Amino acid sequence: MKVSFFSTQPYDIKFFNECNEKFNFDLEYFEPNLDEHTVNIIEEGTDAICVFVNDKLNEGVIKKLKKRGIKYIALRNAGFNNVDLEAAKKYEIKVCRVPAYSPQAVAEHTLAMLLTLNRKTHKAYNRVREQNFSLNGLLGTNIYTKTVGVIGTGNIGRVFCKTIKALGTNVIAYDLYPNEELKKEGFQYVTLEELLKQSDIISLHCPLTPETHHLINKQTISLMKNGVYLINTSRGGLINTLDIIDGLKSKKIGALGIDVYEQEDKLFFRDLSETIIKDDKIQLLLSFPNVLVTAHQAFFTEEALTQIALVTLDNLRQLSNSNSIDNKAAELV
Ligand code: NAD
Fold first, then answer.
1. Is 76 a catalytic residue?
2. Is there an atom of ligand 1 within 6 Å of 133 CB?
3. Counting beta carbons within 10 angstroms of the beta carbon of residue 69, is it exposed (0 to 12), middle (13 to 18) or buried (19 or more)?
């Protein structure tokens, strides 16, 4: 099995090479994102490609993959909004993913963003290094007793519900398919409208689909409480960025934590410190004191990277052996 990796970072190489000792595949690593141009660097004799969140697998790219003899597309992540699954079906390329590698990693980062924004530890860190020990401007609130609305209670949302509940919050949830286990544990499901109206803190954990695209927009923001905290560690496209900027300007949004951003494919996972960034929306967001941006790092723990490498290579092993995968959630096409 020869596998070409796109959007490769040094940590991908480390974790995949370590894990590959068990599989002995021929792994080749490319740094660029996959698109209609970079698809041409795939060498003859390659069986599979391994891609990440910002690789674009539209019909044009998939058609070219087919021409190059690619049989399998392995996503080394859970979300698959960047893959045209219909096109993969049409060109008979199998697509697999890592449905759940460490929901705790993402849930813990969500909590970290919330606590940082609330207690302003990011500002305090810089302030004391300048020997400024004043507390003015660092005032937070107790999270205890606040109402936290969780949108999407799948693998990550469920862990986040339990994690945030442990702080003594009142957790309410919204999902198209409420989780019976959470209900039995006393978590309350409400409608989306009720959640938006009642929550002091809202955390997004649903996938990006045509239905959830710009779920957070002018109209849904207008239903929220004044000063609401919003955290998005799911996908950037869930939020209409211009509308959230208006929400921040009007102080409707009291704090915003985003680990994902609609136009992140041009920014994240790169060092752009010497570059003039032309995306005015992210520049504006970065200028707000109550906005915290991290560059899609919620998944980034040792445990998650180990599990991602193991499951990805095992998915490919199973596909090449039997054209199917035991864990049906991992098999997309
Ligand atoms: P999951 O599939 O286990 O759960 C998603 C939940 O969302 C499901 O319960 C589903 O019923 C619900 N849902 C779907 N459509 C909905 C809608 N229209 N309204 C309300 N709920 C809806 O997925 P997961 O593993 O919990 O991951 C959630 C998302 O987190 C992924 O789709 C991915 O985009 C994102 N993610 C981000 C990172 C990161 O590093 N920032 C890492 C992993 C996953």
1. no
2. no
3. exposed
